[in-house]
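Our preliminary data section would be incomplete without showing what the modeling component actually yields. Below, a chain of 465 amino acids is followed by its predicted structure, encoded as tokens that our downstream tools consume directly.
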Amino acid sequence: MKFHILTLFPQMVLQGLNTSILARAAENGLISFRAADIREYTQDKHGKADDYPYGGGAGMLMQAQPVYDAYRSVVRNKETVRTIYVTPQGRPFSQKLAGELAQEEELIFLCGHYEGVDERVLNEIVTDYISIGDYVLTGGELPAMVMIDAIARLVPGVLNNGFSAQFETFHNDLLEYPQYTRPAEWKGQSVPEVLLSGDHKAISAWRLSQAIDRTRERRPDLYVKYMEKQDVITWLSKKKRNNIHMIELLKRGHGEVLFAEGNNILLYDPNSKACFLNISEPEKGFHMLDRIPEETKLFVTSQEECNHLLTKHLKAQVICCCYQTVYTRREALPVKNKDIRILDESWVDVIAEYYRQEGREYILGSIRRKTMFGCFIAGELAGFIGIHTEGSMGMLFVREEYRRQGVGESLAAYLINLTKEWGWTPYCHVFTDNLPSIRLQEKMGLYLSDGNIWWLENGAEKSSG
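Predicted structure:
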């Protein structure tokens, strides 16, 4: 991901960003920073990039021409690049917005100074006005650096632990639980006994309870959102096998509730740009259509009535029909082939050669999230499995020369055990005509849904794009 910063103080920005985790990510080619010095683009022989405001008033104003030329040096022949003006007048920056911006390939940050920037160039180039708080600083550099840091750490591969960003403050609308390290006692304060017990289930329960209590006390606004999601999960849990994909989307903190009235539910996953629908009252479905985000690419339904609604009014097209399988048992599964590892980017072309249902970029994203795993026999890659963007297990493939050696079963068992350790409920979507995969999952103890799951492509999004 590329970050461009239009600024009067390029060294201030670059020195701040080229340190620690972000510096390592830049060295590995995951992100890059470029600071364009606005003064270099002024036509004034003295290097001035500001002047007095028309109509009078205190202070100086940054001129349109040097800002615009600095911007053009970045975009060059591109049609547009999402451009953020850092200003207290903008919408508040949040973790959700950071996740949205992390999906972009490039971002431009315009850092204002003095009394601001000529309105005409803002109208010309800015796509987003964003604020980090209701206060005024001497310039936009520090807010830009704050936002870049928050966005960059969500770019797949930037953090060493691919899941560390998923279990911290604001995950699932909860503040982070309290944490402790050595020594076990300090100034008369002891680490809670449960954290020393080794009982991972008890530890997870304690952490969730602490996160809920802390959120209720410190951020009642977030607590209300969290409880609203729990109400939706309660409704969906009445048919858990059929709705596990929606339940897990909310429990893992990835889903947004766009509509919820009883069992009429519309969820949105910004990561996969997919909407998940459940409709019990047809008239409610029409209200849902108005709330579907424009950027939606996919729909996931478990009712043919939903399909009819989407195909008729949004020109959606059914891509595939699946069974949904879910593993609800407590015990871990045995793993026959033990040499299973997280795959890195050196394997992306190999995986793309064998697994052609998704493109190379999709596979690369899974690798960077550290959710693609390979089974090795005598040092050779025998097969692989991964977690799809929306959260289901899949992409299972075993090379022909290694079949009937338990490779597929080992990979599936390994990933089921791992996701259970993360506190997730493992589930898969299996094509209804993929009998070998269905038999494998039934053999391993996964339960099939009562009905089908359909994936649809958003025809309205496709035609508008």
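The chain is about 35% helix and 25% strand. The longest strand covers residues 447-457. Preliminary results of this kind motivate Aim 1 of the renewal.
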